[in-house]
Design goal:
Elements lengths: L5 E10 L2 E2 L6 E5 L6 E2 L9 E2 L3 E3 L9 E3 L5 H18 L9 H16 L6 H30 L1
Length: 152
């Protein structure tokens, strides 16, 4: 058998002191062969892999990475501000209208809370989905602010 170019490992995400069941497994690609992978210069990008990616089964939870980076609401709010500034620069060519202030956050909320089953995580799931929606709102609002400031 051929050696994989990378391994995708399931990741357990923690928030508000509890493991989030919504969206599990969230896979993260690691253990990469240097000659087969390239990392794009984008925050939170996944590596571009030329070859087979071996997936550890999600049922092997004992092999999952434990992801503790967003355990507190304050951490997410701080990161959302930093990352939304980055997204404004990256999306500077976009021209969102007022409707985007509603539909982009609403879609992100529905994706987090319904499609990824955040509702199964109780209050932490609801809070996480609202914070996801707030992140989208911040991106659109900052892009609009930039556009309005250029007009003046």
């Amino acid at each position: 058998p051929q050696c994989p170019a990378a391994i995708a490992i399931p990741r357990c995400n923690f928030f508000m002191g509890t493991m989030m069941h919504s969206g599990y497994p969230d896979y993260i690609v690691r253990f990469l062969r240097k000659d087969r992978c390239h990392w794009p210069a984008v925050i939170h990008a996944s590596p571009e892999v030329n070859g087979v990616i071996e997936h550890i089964p999600s049922g092997r939870q004992e092999m999952a990475f434990i992801h503790l980076s967003n355990d507190h609401v304050a951490d997410i709010l701080r990161k959302n501000n930093i990352y939304s500034d980055y997204e404004v620069t990256r999306r500077s060519h976009k021209s969102y209208g007022i409707a985007a202030l509603i539909y982009r956050p609403a879609f992100r909320f529905l994706k987090s809370y319904v499609l990824k089953r955040g509702f199964l995580d109780g209050a932490p799931g609801l809070i996480a989905a609202i914070l996801d929606a707030t992140y989208q709102f911040a991106i659109v609002a900052k892009l609009m602010e930039r556009r309005y400031n250029k007009k003046q």
